[in-house]
Specification:
- By secondary structure, the protein is mainly β.
- The strands form two sheets. Strands 2, 4, 5, 6, 9, 10 and 11 form a seven-stranded mixed beta sheet that branches. A four-stranded antiparallel beta sheet has the order 1-3-8-7, with no helix packed on it.
- The radius of gyration is 13 Å and the shape is globular.
- The relative contact order is 0.32.
- The protein is built from no helices and eleven strands.
């Protein structure tokens, strides 16, 4: 079993940056693909970014391309989401997830964190 804990959210001005972290427990974490999703009030959970288990394939939703970067540190069992040039429409609860094989849909993932709030003011 894999447990995921997110951190790094907060309240920032438009144009600012945040770095989200997701720390995992479980020996097999490095064998899973990992993704970030977000959910704004009244909306469905939305795919944001994913990284393959090897770290060689990065996938992003069009709205964050060029602004967000997903990465992972295998030694620390941690996946990161670096968010630059934040916009008000990025406001949401952000969740990390792990799954095999992973993908871009919530149903592709088996394990989920509790989420961290990101609020971007205009």
């Amino acid at each position: 079993q894999v447990q995921l804990v997110e951190s790094g959210g907060g309240l920032v001005q438009a144009g600012a940056s945040l770095r989200l972290s997701c720390t995992a427990s479980g020996r097999a974490f490095s064998t899973y693909g990992t993704g970030w999703f977000r959910q704004a009030p009244g909306k469905e959970r939305e795919f944001v970014a994913a990284i393959s288990r090897s770290g060689g394939t990065l996938t992003y939703v069009d709205s964050v391309k060029g602004r967000f970067t997903i990465s992972r540190d295998r030694d620390k069992s941690t996946v990161y989401l670096q968010m630059n040039n934040l916009k008000p429409e990025d406001t949401a609860v952000y969740y990390c997830a792990a799954g095999e094989p992973g993908g871009t849909w919530p149903t592709d993932y088996e394990y989920w964190g509790q989420g961290t709030q990101v609020t971007v003011s205009s």
